Amino acid sequence: MVDGHPTVREAVARAATRLQQYDTPEAQRVAELLASHVVGLPRLELYANPGLSLNEAGEDVFQNGVERLVAGEPLQYVTAETEFRGHRIMCDRRALIPRPETEELVEAVLDDEHVWSKPSPEILDIGTGSGCIAISLALAYPTARVTAIDVSSDALVLAAANASRLGCADRIEFIVGDLQATDGPFDLMVSNPPYIPAAEVAQLDPHIREHEPRVALDGGTDGLRVIETIAASAPERLAPGAPIHLEIGDGQAARVMECLQRNGFGKLSSRNDLCGRERMVRGERAP
Question: How far is CA 73 from CA 32, 76, 182, 202, in A?
Fold first, then answer.
């Protein structure tokens, strides 16, 4: 303890013992990430100076964060940010927390040569949430013209703030609504829609169920309500031969591809995430 304030090591150790919803290694990691946020140092550098302590203001912020974590709030909401493809994305209750699976969805889109062979592709991100997909694509391809839509005006305010923070707000149009609010034609559609069956939402971990927006989780009775709506409306707004990329739930790939096929999509394929689960589906509008 330095000048009456705990060292970072001491504060982390105390916090980890209180985070009983996590196993021991994870509790330690979460406490370290909170401390990293408070002191403004990378997690791996926290212990480089054994005497590093929290000052009075930092101690208050850290303890407030610990209380929120103990109450079940996700770390990303406590720190109000997370990392997505190397960028710091602001996040809070207005939108889902960006996850690694959605980073993999962006990778699938960036691998789609059909889209990026065009000099200025028109891209639509459906249900943009925090804006992480739209922003990632706008940053990767500065000549792309990106439209981001969401039924939540609050989520769009967050997405626009993220785009401004990362310097690409002038290349993304934010629209409140669903596909009916757009015209097209688009050279690509991408979406991480709600896909969890309604009955399963209540079984999610409390830090998800009680804090993240239900509208972004609940996919209706079978989890495919929003996906079916997208599949029905997308063809008239996609350019001939243009692809759609969807993030889906584990075990949904066959049904999602059937849904796309019923609505005129061809060249259907799925892609596994890094854990080997079919979590992405691609289809193309007929030429």
Answer: 16, 8, 35, 16
Is the pLDDT at 136 greater than 80? The verdict is yes
Cα angle 119, 135, 84; round to 5: 130
Q: How does DSSP classify residue 214?
A: G
Q: Which residues contact 161 (CB under 8 A, 6 or more apart)?
A: 90
Confidence class for position 2, pLDDT limits 50, 70, 90: very low
Q: What is the crossing angle of helices 132-140 and 153-165, to 10°?
A: 30
Number of continuous H segments (helices) and E segments (strands) in the chain? 12, 9
Torsion region of 124: left, alpha or beta (phi above 0 gives left; psi -120 to 50 gives alpha): beta
Q: How far apart are CA 194 and CA 127, in angstroms?
A: 9
Q: For 154-164, what is the mean pLDDT?
A: 98
Q: What is the DSSP letter of 212?
A: S
Question: What pTM was computed for the model?
Answer: 0.93
| CA–CA dist 138, 123 (Å, integer) | 9
